[in-house]
Amino acid sequence: MIEQVTFGDRAAARAGDNSHLETVAIVSFSDLMKGSSPLVFDGKSTKDLETEGKLPKLSFDELTNSPIQFGMVDLIRSHDTHAKVNDAHKTTGRDAGDSPKDKLEHDIDSIKFPHRAERMHKAIKEFEERAKKDHLSQAEKDKFYSSLDTLITTPNGKVSQDKRAILAEQCLEHAAHPHDIDQGHYNTCNVTTLEERSFTNNPSKMAEILTSVAISGTWNGIKIDDRSLEPRSGAIDCPPSDGIRTFASQILNVTLVNDITQRRTPPMFYSEEIHLDDPNDSGERLRFANGKEVTYKDLGYPHNPPDAPVRKPCVTIDEIQAEGTKLSGDSGFCIANVDDKDTHAKNVIHIHNKEDLIKEIKRLKAEHKLPAILMVDGANPMFNNGRKSDNVDVHVISIVDYDDKKGVLISNQWGKASDGWRSADDVFAATILTKKPHKHEDQTKY
Predict the structure, then answer these.
(1) How far apart are CA 224 and CA 261, in angstroms?
(2) Which residues is 13 bridged to in the sheet?
(3) What contacts 190, CB < 8 A, 6 or more positions away?
(4) In CATH, what is the architecture of 330-430?
(5) Residue 368 and residue 361: Cα distance in Å, rounded?
(6) Which residue ranges make up each domain of the chain?
(7) pLDDT per residue over 336-386, tens digit each?
(8) Rounded to whole angstroms, how far apart are CA atoms 27 and 159?
(9) What is the C-alpha to C-alpha distance for residues 99 and 322, in angstroms, rounded to an integer?
(10) CB neighbours (10 Å) of residue 293?
């Protein structure tokens, strides 16, 4: 946590005649006490600090008695961005040649809660092992670590620095174990599959988005409302509980949905709000710019009743594919068993039988494009014990692997019990929609 301290001219001058030339020196408490004004460190006097055995290292880039900033045990005063970077290396003991991973690991140790820092170091090791197995490049890992370092070291942001440490820890966990990411009880399977796919192949993009939104509340030209940046129940746990959505996934879900819906015509704004009066209300809202809630009729989706407000993202498989291409740069990894003329699935892989499904998964595996995203019927017994619904229950899952003997390895977003190897017959059967998401003559109005 960055705080403010002050010190006096003479105390600073005692660091050395050349202190104004950005030299670094260790200043004793006796020297500090001889200054025109005593050091105040986090509201404590130097005698209190001496009693507690704290010996801060000071870095001066000019003679001044104006406020300076410090980390847990380091003090720094800088006058421009370049000096901040250089002085940060000086005062934290980091070397300018340190790798992004080294810098992050050093800055993790400044987090107030040692147990969190310990877990983060463990997650880094697990991520490195997974990255080696999946052949992630060093450049990809460096970008990932750099974003997380910015996330935890930036003093101010939309999300507090303490909570951003939680986000960084969860981000490391997701990068180490991408197939354990869950959507919780929110209707965000669409973007959670994209999150899983990105953490598997391009974790730096997820870290970039998370860092941008947590600090500025924006990413890629879209703005996230403040209500969606407050963690939901159970979201701050790490490692995350099975089936529960993390705070990191919450922010990523909301951001990815808005990166889709805010670009529609007219724009639609997705938010997740807390409604304490109704525990069954997930707080998901989709609104037009004037605040009016979007209805199924507005989208052109068959629904009973048609004027019911949409309380979920309602993202099409084509939109999932387009957003995934934006995130990763590759295309052709979404699969759907729908009519080839379906206007909401123009740019996805179409399958019509089990053989098509197996062929396409094998091809994507050979091209290193897994996980793939498969559109299924959420009411299928594989997922929901055959629950019946009067309305469309479209769901998407991740296809992680295929083996001629084991079948299809799926990763659902509903907890570990719904993950695992399934027969190709069962997986294909799940792609048959019992109710169509829209009629061919009905076009969405965005």
Answers:
(1) 12
(2) none
(3) 257, 313, 315, 319, 320, 396
(4) Alpha-Beta Complex (3.90)
(5) 10
(6) 3-92, 100-299, 330-430
(7) 999 888 888 899 999 999 999 999 999 999 999 999 999 999 888 887 654
(8) 35
(9) 34
(10) 14
Q: Cα 232–256–340 angle (5° rounding)?
A: 125
Single-letter amino acid code for the residue at 373: I
Buried b (16+ CB within 10 A) or exposed e, 150-171: bbbbeeebbbebebbbbbbbbb
pLDDT tens-digit readout, 43-95: 444 444 444 444 443 433 333 333 333 333 332 232 333 333 334 443 445 56
Two tokens, residue 351: 């399958």
Which H or E element spans position 30? helix 29-33
Length of the chain (residues):
446
- CA dihedral over 340, 344, 346, 349, signed as positive or negative: negative
Residue linked to tokens 């020196």: 25
Contact between residue 93 and residue 72 where contact means Cβ atoms under 8 Å apart: no
Contacts of the segment 13-16: beta carbons below 8 A, 24+ positions apart? 13/63, 15/58, 15/60
At 100, list the tokens: 């992004």
